[in-house]
Structures are given as C-alpha cells and as structure tokens.
Amino acid sequence: MAGKQESGAGKRVVVIGGGVAGSLLAKSLQFISDLTLIDPKEYFEIPWADLRAMVEPSFAERSVIHHKAYLTNGNIVTSTAINVTENQVMTADGRSIPYDYLVIASGHKEPYPEARAERLKQFQSDNEKIKSSQSILIVGGGPTGVELAGEIAVDFPEKKVTLVHNGPRLLEMLGPKAAKKTLDWLTSKKVDVKFNQKVHLSHIAEGSKEYATSSGETIIADCHFLCIGKPLASEWLKETVLRDSLDESGRLMVDANLRLKGCKNIFAIGDITDLKEMKQGYLAQKHSAVVAKNIKMLMSGRNEDKMSTYVPTSKAIAIVTLGRANAVAEFPFLTLSGFFPALIKSKDLFVGKTRKLMGLH
Ligand SMILES: Cc1cc2nc3c(=O)[nH]c(=O)nc-3n(C[C@H](O)[C@H](O)[C@H](O)COP(=O)(O)OP(=O)(O)OC[C@H]3O[C@@H](n4cnc5c(N)ncnc54)[C@H](O)[C@@H]3O)c2cc1C
C-alpha cells in the first residue's frame, strides 16, 4: 500500500468484509484506487453454494475463491475490523489502515476458518458426517435448513431426515404459498418436518443420539446440523464513531446514495444495510455497482449531486433450491415450484455467473 500512496496513484479505499457485496466492490475499484480489502478469511465464499458442497465437497472448489484470484491489484488484509475512526480502520491483528473512502460490507458473522484449505476440509468432514449417519436432524426451517434437507433428501434418499423449526411454517421470509409448496415437496421426499418446537441442544450429552425438544418430544438422530440464522456482523461498530449510524436491529442506516446518513465518505452495502428489501446477494451486488460508481465520481472530483441513487426493491425474487432438479421461487406476483425455477438456480447455483462477475472462468 505504501508504494501506491507515495506515487499518489489513487485515493485510499478500504472495504470491510469480503462477502458477496464487498468482494465485488473491491474488484471493481482495484485499478483506479489504492484499494484495501479487510476480511477475516483469505477467500470469498458463495454462501448459497455451501449446502451443495456439504453433499458434494468438490463443488466448493469453484464456490470458495481465494481473494487474490480476483483481487490482483489490491491489498488484502486477512483480519477482522475492530474499530473505525474518521480516517482509519483498526484490525484485530494490530494494524491501522487509513482511508479516504470507507465501505462497510460486513454482512453476517461467519465462524469460518481463515484458510481456504481448512474450509474445503470442513465440507469434506460435513460430507463424511452425512454419509456415516443413518438419521440426520436439521435444526432450523429457514433457507439454509430447507436447502440442506433438500440436498440430503435427493443425494441420500435412504437417510432419515428430520427438520425441526421453532416457527409455524418454513421459509418465514417468503409467503405462505412458497412455504406450503416447500413443505409438500419435503414431505414427498420423506423428510419429517416438525413445527413450533425448539431442540434443546445445550442438554445433549456427548455421543447421545437423543434430542429433546421444547414440546416434550425426543428425536433420535445419528447427527445434527444447526441451520439457524447468523447474527449481523455489526456488534463491533457499537463502540465506534459510527455507533449512531446503527438502527435498533444493528443495521447501518444509509441514504439514497448508500452513504451512512450524515457521512461524506463512508458507504455501506449488502445485508448490513437498513434498506427495506429482502436481503439477497443479487441485490447486494447491485449495491456494489452503485457505490463503485459513486466513489469513482467522488474521486474524480465531480459534483456529488450527480451521484447514483439506489431504490430498494419491493419486488425481490427469491429462489430456494430443493435438491438438484427442483426449487421454489417467489416472483413478485407468482410463486412457482418444480423443474422450471430449478432451471434458474439448482444445477449450478449461480456459481458460474458469480465467478464471471468476479472476472473468473
Ligand atoms: C441458504 C441461503 C441461500 C441463499 N440463496 C440466495 C440466492 O439464491 N440468491 C441471492 O441473491 N441471495 C441468496 N442468499 C442471500 C445472500 O447469501 C446474502 O444476501 C449475501 O450473502 C449478502 O452479502 P454480504 O456481502 O452483504 O454479506 P456476507 O455474504 O455475509 O459477507 C460478509 C463478509 O464480511 C466479513 N466480515 C464480517 N465481519 C467483519 C469484520 N468485522 N471485519 C472484516 N470482515 C468482516 C465476513 O467474513 C464475510 O466475508 C442466500 C442466503 C442463504 C443463507
């Protein structure tokens, strides 16, 4: 970084978070700024490909991508941002990184290992866990739990899969039609879906195969997977100069240009924002495009009134895969299930498309 600064080649742009939104933004600005990406992992991972990688670990070879593969002209700091001031970001490994423009894209907290090789091993060991179990308990009926149940039911139809959800229906972020179609499909694949109960995970003895639930049931399973929503990665901001930019649920409040309200040079993109729309990766990519344009414009000294604006999408499209050849899709005025929506997502899970966007084959 020092070299570029000395040459005065560009303004310093720091991106916090190398997920769907941050990685794309970093890629877009790497040749026209002095770009630094801060991420605790040395890789970008396509989150919606994870469930396929658990039943087919080689899938992760393409969906878990070294940051250095697409960020050939940026600085990669493999650490966690722990503090931010008006002009620098501090990281857990003791660095202070100055910025002219800051973009926060820290999305959700992920307990993933730093090294790509370790992450690939995790998929391998999840796969062995699935293969060596006759009965599998999935805790959580959101997209992660549903997609995992679908992958296992299709690739390992002989396994007994039980899915326990603490709410009254599956996929609560979608409408009841999508939930019903999903339940019907899972039931047709002999997945036992139980609603309105919690699994008491803290009470399980080492090696026990008995899982007690809040409604007094006992589920017998050889192993379990926890598929409950991950917390937002914004706790660290609460003690910083940006604390007043957080709303009650820990999201960053942005204006129409995706800048933090009241800040001239700090932007936020992706799931961490308070934009009133479904939290989707393809929308996070749209945020990246708007902010890339806006930072380019500000760097070139043009009038900030000309900055691009982002209008939250009230009609988001959501597709939840059900194994390799089925899916449930919610379009603005239509909910579909079966083969057609699967054509859009289920085979490749947008991995080719995402890689192309990142400039990779
Ligand atoms: C099962 C499932 C299926 C989905 N399917 C789809 C789909 O088909 N299509 C779609 O568009 N969307 C889909 N989504 C939603 C999509 O995954 C998210 O909207 C998207 O990942 C949001 O991107 P993001 O960059 O904001 O956050 P994230 O992807 O959560 O990335 C955040 C990054 O920030 C890093 N980070 C966190 N804290 C810090 C810190 N303090 N310092 C530095 N780095 C930090 C993290 O390590 C991570 O790399 C799906 C989600 C799930 C769970």
TrEMBL record:
Pfam families the record matches: Pyr_redox_2
Free-text function comment from the UniProt entry: Putative FAD-dependent oxidoreductase.
Protein name, per record: FAD/NAD(P)-binding domain-containing protein
Presence of the UniProt keyword Nucleotidyltransferase in the record: no
A GO molecular function held by the record: electron-transferring-flavoprotein dehydrogenase activity
Keywords of this entry: FAD, Flavoprotein, Oxidoreductase
GO CC list: cytoplasm
Record organism: Daucus carota subsp. sativus
Superkingdom of source: Eukaryota
Boundaries of every FAD/NAD(P)-binding domain copy: 12-284
